[in-house]
Hints:
The protein is mainly beta. The chain has no helices and twelve strands. The chain has strands at about 40, 45-50, 60, 65-70, 80-85, 100-105, 115-120, 125, 145-155, 160-165, 165-175, 190. The strands form three sheets. A six-stranded antiparallel beta sheet has the order 1-4-12-6-7-8, with no helix packed on it. Strands 5-9-10-11 form a four-stranded antiparallel beta sheet, with no helix packed on it. A two-stranded antiparallel ribbon has the order 2-3.
Amino acid sequence: AAQGVLSYPDIAYYRFNEGAGNQIINWAIPGSGLYAPTFFNNATPGWNTTSPQYGASAIDFAGPTWLRTGWPTNLSQSFTIEAWIRTNTVVPQSCTTGCTLFRLWGDYTLSLLRCYVGFYNPGANFLGGGFPAMQTSTAYVTDGNWHHVALVHDRTAQTMTSYVDGNLDQTAPYTFTPPAPGATSNFILGA
């Protein structure tokens, strides 16, 4: 009997510890060769080599620097997105509108799945476009300190769940069928 072809999940793991230049390595195994990330307009991002959370350096997404991962956002499968973040501008906890916007990740084409911090308040804001509109987080993450943020999409349970610094932030259910990935769909980090 013939063996079937193994089907690996889509995986991207960026350490952002290159320290210079505009080439980013996808360290995921399996999956490292599936998608070639590129920076918008081949820009070279800023690199923090003095106070990264882990490793020798961290990327600074300030300004018009964002990374096209090449991943066609696939909402028909479960996935987790997580990152260590630190804003380079402190947004006061008293800010309630017109705060500084920091985009973390998203797909602004097909799915409009996105996450940002600041803007409406100094917390994390997880949005889903056609997905459930998650409430604004009460966790203060725009204080200039390192924070861990995560979003879990559970396709089977039909939920989006966010975590901030390891603590459950919120869970939002949905009842519709997510759109299939399209040719123009491209998951982006930063902006």
